[in-house]
Automatic annotation (TrEMBL):
The active site is at H155 (proton acceptor). This is Peroxidase. Disulfide bonds join C124-C205, C157-C162, C211-C404, C290-C318. It comes from Capsicum annuum. The lineage of its organism: Eukaryota, Viridiplantae, Streptophyta, Embryophyta, Tracheophyta. Belongs to the peroxidase family. Ascorbate peroxidase subfamily. Belongs to the peroxidase family. Classical plant (class III) peroxidase subfamily.
Amino acid sequence: MNHHKTGKKFHARGSMAFGFHHLIKGTQKVVGAFARGVTGHNVPQTAEQQQHQNIEQQQPHTKEENAPQNAEQHVPQTAEQQQPQANEQHVPQDAEQQVPQTAEEHVEPEVLGGLREGFYQKTCPQAEEIIRNGLVRAMQNNSKIVAAIPRLFFHDCFVNGCDGSILLDTTPSGAEIEKSAGQNGITVKGYELIDEIKLELEKNCPGIVSCSDILAYLSRDAFVASGLPHYEVSGGRRDGMESLEANVADNIPVPDDSVDLMIELFNRKGLNAEDLVVLIGAHSIGVAHCFNFLYRMDDPEKAKMVDPRLGNVMRFTCTNQMSTLAFDAATQYKMDSVYYKQLLMNRGLLESDQVLAQDIRTRGLVQLFNNDEIGWFDKFGKAMNKLGAVEVLTGNQGQIRKQCRAVNA
Ligand code: HEM
């Protein structure tokens, strides 16, 4: 086994978070089958149509079309694909003060954690297209898949790095796998889509595209389908050969985590407080189950942090703990800065989201991204590449799995 990972041993989490998820895990075992049924319904037609339009309009460029070594050569194909440049160093003060960068200042390094843009250009040039088409097909039956995929990717990357270990159904030692952990369980979905895409890739380019890279490209496509401008994704991850439930609890943030703890968890992965606030904007799409936020209304101190109208919606909608509510009900299927506005109005569903709008270290960023959606979009793609480079296996490390649920025999 070739597992060159570092920084995997961390202190135990606060007992509150642990106890809470212990409880959740018990609940999942009882109601898991029901929950899958619940989360598949209620698909607004218009949102679906909008998503399909977005993903078809924003076809990712291949390396050949759009050599990103030199920013001057980068000519966006359509108006939609043009991404305004944000100021890398901007201090969270006022969106109006931002000075757009020139193309020269915006050149991105080719290598991040040993990964490369256009990684499959020679070995499997159709890889990104196959992945994107898989998402488009899946969206026809289930528009919620779009939000499920980035969460799957995040939970993969924060546990043992972005190595596809969350996808494994068994681990060689026979121990409990990541999927069994409370933070994953029924609320992490999308495994079947990964299987379908992997099958298609194996038909076209056997043994070439890793499961971990599928997750990285597919997450980008999911965000683009939700309105985020296209961003290039670096590839070259290889798949891990171990998946352990024991690694999950200390690495995945939970809804009652403090800002301190979230920043610490992100720091351990090489991400900073700004990356945290940028990436938490992923909650602009998707839903949360009531067991992840309804407890706030039972505690008078915590309930004070909830906008009374949202509190009423929580109580009304949460007929049981397995009901779901959209993070951003107004634009549930759209990546936009409305989510940050909601936080500033105490309408964040999760306590862990809401505290980011309160804390002195992060509030300015929440305000900034609320005022500057384009700047946030730009930072989002970059932060996703940082997330996607966490503790990756490259070169001869790990393996390219033949199927994503099992290590190669
Ligand atoms: C930093 C702390 C974070 C915490 C505490 C957190 C927690 C959660 C929780 C509790 C849910 C609801 C799960 C459910 O009830 O079904 C959720 C959903 C989601 N999370 Fe996060 N998350 C965090 C960061 C992130 C990041 C960094 C991303 C992606 C880059 C992400 C993407 C998502 C998405 C897209 C959903 C919606 C899933 C769906 O609708 O199926 N989250 N998150």
